[in-house]
Amino acid sequence: LLRLLCISLLPFIAAGQDFQCGTDKIQSDIAKTVVQFNCKDKVSEINKCCGSHDSCYDQQQPRGTCDATFCTCVAAASAGNPLCGFYTTIFCDTAKVFGEGAYKKAGEAKAKNGGAKKEEAAAAAAVAHAAPTAVAQPPPGAFTPV
């Protein structure tokens, strides 16, 4: 029975390694679970938004620009699904309120490594440039943190 349980969970554990939302494994696993259950067909899109946000921080673009682009991206990805939009609004607010530490850490890593390679910067800029621009709102009556 234990072997069957382990085998059935293996795809989720392996897939969790590729999910880019969150600043550590625990946050990433929580975010992925939330997205899988509430944004079923948008996991890949939302994950791309998180990856672009990470790249933006890594390049030390203005933090407000990175966060605004991320918020626009996840809102567009969740458009048409009010429950998903509710959670992506929380992701957005979390980045705005608690992202300073991750931004500073990315800046320290950039300084230590001598900056991002030109290819990485160009790829991240292309992804950020291609980010959707529509903004979704949480469903009426939904709790949204301040």
UniProtKB/TrEMBL annotation:
Keyword Ligase assigned: no
Signal peptide: 1-16
InterPro entries for this protein: PLA2-like (IPR053322), PLA2_histidine (IPR033113), PLipase_A2_dom_sf (IPR036444)
Location(s) in or outside the cell: Secreted
Alphabetized GO MF terms: phospholipase A2 activity
Top-rank lineage group of the source organism: Eukaryota
Coiled-coil regions, chain positions: none
Biological process annotations from GO: arachidonate secretion; phospholipid metabolic process
Keyword field: Secreted, Signal
Cellular component annotations (GO), alphabetically ordered: extracellular region
Chief localisation class: secreted
Protein name, UniProt field: Uncharacterized protein
Organism: Pristionchus mayeri
Lineage, broadest ranks: Eukaryota, Metazoa, Ecdysozoa, Nematoda, Chromadorea
